Amino acid sequence: MVIKEKKALFIIAPKNFREEELFEPKEILEKAGINTVIASRKAGTILGVGGETVKASISLEDVDIKNYNAIIFVGGPGASAYFDDAKARQIAKQAVEKGKILAAICIAPSILANAGLLKEKKATAFSDQAENLHEKGAKYICKDIIVDGKIITSNGPEAAKRFGEAIVKAIHL
């Protein structure tokens, strides 16, 4: 199936996602003409770490990878709920298998590492995740953004805008 329009899926934690890591990249993608969808463990209203809410329109169980050009895991303290989540890891693995852009910011790169997707890949994350990435075989680099093939990682909210720009660039390649 060929995706006619460019489409990206943002996966946020069931609670305590980092708002700027969702809102800033989402706005950049939408300005670039990319349709965005928000998913979480369950569809419905999700509370961010800063007190803002957003509606997740689909649950992780309803995600169909073929409908998206990019899968983006948003950080914040709540993202740790997906570190050992079988469905989140399955989505990440399917994204790689299907040749999709796979992106993660803040602590969310640990989801990719725990899924075995960062072995021998250059990656970054929030500094407290460096050891986990290294233990899972990633070549951790302390930078704001790392692009290694179709995997994009970022270290946190200060880089959210550049993270969004890197995703747009990768989608349009």
Structural class: alpha/beta
Q: Largest sheet, if any?
A: 7 strands, mixed
Number of helical segments? 5
Radius of gyration: 14 Å
Rounded average pLDDT: 96
E-strand count: 11
CATH architecture heading: 3-Layer(aba) Sandwich
Silhouette: globular
User: How much helical structure, as a percent, in the residues?
Assistant: 25-40%
- The number of distinct structural domains comes to 1
SSE arrangement, N to C? EHEEEEEHEHEHEEEH
CATH homologous superfamily designation:
Class I glutamine amidotransferase (GATase) domain
Which CATH class is shown? Alpha Beta
Distance between the termini: 19 Å
Q: How much strand?
A: 15-25%
Give your account of this protein's structure:
This protein is of the alpha/beta class. It has a single domain, classed as 3-Layer(aba) Sandwich (Rossmann fold), CATH 3.40.50. It has helices at 19-31, 86-97, 109-114, 130-135, 160-171; strands at residues 7-11, 35-40, 44-47, 53-56, 58-59, 70-73, 101-105, 122-123, 139-140, 145-148, 151-154. The chain has a 7-stranded mixed beta sheet, sandwiched between helices. Strands 3-4 form a two-stranded antiparallel sheet. Helix 4 (130-135) links the parallel strand 8 (122-123) and strand 9. Helix 1 (19-31) packs parallel to helix 5. The longest helix has 13 residues, at 19-31. It starts with 6 loop residues before the first strand and ends with a helix.
